[in-house]
Specification:
Length: about 300
């Protein structure tokens, strides 16, 4: 067993002072960062007119709304004032209609995801630094993707409702454009991290740019693309649920109507159906994504 050498105090003192100075500098940096963060929160709250006193005074209304949507209202006859759980059939009186609208919502999300993912797939390769050397062509593709994902889906849906009228079509187009922007960006980042040796081999053998992408790039990124597409489908199901707020089809139309007309039990029934559907889609798509990524890792 060897003894640990102890430095003389004359050599140890400068080391202790250096450690203390470094620790004090770290603490000062941490305090400055915390002060800047608090200041930014206060400024943001001031600009956004966040009134904590008003929030505190009205927080009861928020919770009372949720307690109200689970109790039959005055128009329910003998059930007035009873919890909704005492008569499930009366609570979900519009089950078939809402189920059909949920089916429309899923189809809007599905078609919007497929169209957006296809366009994002075609455009993403032009936005990558390792495949496109022309900065103008690359910049144009990136700016287009930024525009598509910067504008919220609900704004696109409003524009398309004005252009094409009420119905699922504006919802599909809005989700497709936003999906094009987000998936195109994610796809391009995946492509920028590929192994370039197969690309160099394809170019050296005389392959065209399209052939290089087809045989050297796509096999490396396809599983990641599918995983991102499934994740985007989950997000689009949630997005499609509110497209009906602006008349773009789906279950959102009945939900906003129930909220505006104070049909409290209808609000809770529709919300529960939406939550159950989104959870089911989340579980199925997460399972699929893990299978795809797991199979890729086993190769």
């Amino acid at each position: 067993m060897t003894a640990i050498p102890v430095l003389p105090e004359a050599q140890l003192a400068p080391l202790k002072r250096a450690y203390a100075d470094a620790r004090a500098a770290k603490l000062r940096q941490g305090a400055l960062f915390a002060a800047a963060l608090v200041l930014a929160i206060l400024v943001a709250g001031r600009v956004a007119e966040v009134d904590l006193a008003r929030m505190g005074a009205n927080i009861g209304g928020f919770f009372s709304y949720f307690s109200r949507i689970f109790v039959f209202d005055s128009g329910s006859g003998a059930l007035q004032g009873q919890p909704v759980f005492v008569d499930i059939r009366e609570w979900f009186w519009g089950f078939r209609k809402w189920l059909r609208l949920l089916g429309d919502t899923l189809l809007i999300a599905y078609v919007g995801t497929i169209i957006g993912a296809t366009l994002g797939f075609l455009l993403c390769f032009s936005a990558t630094r390792n495949l496109v050397s022309n900065p103008w062509a690359r910049g144009l593709a990136k700016r287009m993707l930024e525009f598509c994902r910067t504008v919220p889906e609900i704004v696109f849906a409003l524009i398309f409702v004005i252009a094409f009228g009420l119905g699922p079509l504006p919802g599909v187009l809005a989700l497709a454009i936003h999906t094009l922007g987000t998936l195109g960006k994610q796809f391009s980042e995946v492509v920028e991290n590929i192994d370039m040796k197969p690309v160099e081999g394809a170019i050296a053998s005389g392959g065209s740019w399209v052939q290089m992408v087809r045989f050297a790039v796509v096999p490396q990124v396809l599983s990641n693309f599918l995983s991102y597409m499934l994740l985007r489908f989950e997000i689009n199901v949630r997005g499609a649920s509110i497209m009906g707020f602006v008349g773009a089809g789906g279950i959102g139309q009945d939900l906003i109507e129930a909220i505006r007309k104070f049909y409290y039990t209808d609000v809770s029934a529709i919300l529960l159906m939406i939550i159950a559907t989104v959870m089911l889609v989340d579980m199925l798509s997460a399972n699929l994504r893990h299978r795809i990524l797991g199979r890729e890792e086993r190769r």
